[in-house]
Amino acid sequence: MTNFDALGLNPAILRAVAERGYVTPTPIQAKAIPAILAGKDIMGGAQTGTGKTAGFTLPMLQRLLAHANTSPSPARHPVRALILTPTRELAIQVEESVRDYGKHTGLRATVVYGGVAMDAQEAALRAGVELLVATPGRLLDHLQQKTLNLNQVEIFVLDEADRMLDMGFIPDIKRIIALLPAKRQNLLFSATFSPEIKKLADQLLNQPELIEVARRNTAAETVTQLAYVCRADDKRALLERLLRDRGEEQALVFMRTKQGAGRLARQLEKSGFEASAIHGDKSQLARLEALDAFKDGKIRVLVATDVAARGLDIEELPLVFNFELPYVPEDYIHRIGRTGRAGASGVAISIVGPDEERLLLEIERLLKRNLPREPLPELGSAGPRAARSGAASWVGNAPARDKSHFDRNPDQIPMARASTSGRSSALVAGAVELPPLAPRRQRQ
Known about the structure:
It contains 16 helices and 13 strands. The protein is α/β, with parallel strands linked by helices and 444 residues long. It is globular and about 70 Å long. Mean pLDDT is 82; it is low at 381-443.
């Protein structure tokens, strides 16, 4: 396979790549870097952990090198590249990569996100930066405050477009796109390509090159996938038994609901595990603190919902649990992609209740393989109890009238998978007046 030094990257960028110990590009990097250097629009799809961020960061830095300068004047450092991400955590990780790979180039970068005061962000923007990483809501806040403008953006990156759709950011994104110059390079990345994402890509991209290195029904070959089928009442006891059997290994545990994630984390703490939860109802600061504690090894078990966990970059995570199976089979791929990254081995264990057997069958249909059913271990004095077969329930024991505690409303899933009829008007690129925004304290 081609080495990085054969891709036409500047020595200053190659130096930073070498300092991180990388020699050979991943498949998506080998495909994306030449296409982006050639100025093409990109529609990219890849599994998490494939090196996608470097795949667009390295050529983006290369294309902006002509603008690098040491002038202290902010006017000499307008925003040339804009990267939008759905969550604060992902924005921070992407900006760290931009800084790391660009540290020898002289280009400036910063990140803006909600949940924190705007003062420090405003100061960085007013000083001038060539590369800006942002979450949509906070970027609109800064545009309203006139702390930056986007009229010299040359490269626009929309990362995790499918999660942007899930989290309701598409209207905000369209407002932002309308403020960008008509002439620019567009890079869209999405783990899955739903009809809505394809529609957005049709509006945004100009004769894009499709780069897809892994089908959306694939999981990393280094991940061992197992399933335990048990009574719903035995799920937590089984999880605790499996955690104890795994020694001191850290684990990421997935739940469907915000309330369920918090409740399970509290129950695990009472059972003696160092555990915490991240979900949409927690403040950005609380989520970041929990993630940092997990990365530092202070917390052994992190319980998360799908939306909160998207974009988490945790090196060498050995173990992922599906305490509740996702309603959308593709989300299973995202979940287990937290482990087995960059060639490392990992284990993904699904704990399946009797009302989730239909969900498991849909996942297996997507994977085109059956997950091995493991025998139940002893769960205390009563011993393991076999699961009772029964009709699947798509919302489990959730109250019929109130589904607000779900990060993703089950009632909306068929709509999300259905193709929309007709075509909406193309996005308008150019200078437009930004409508007034209602003040929001906590914006992504």
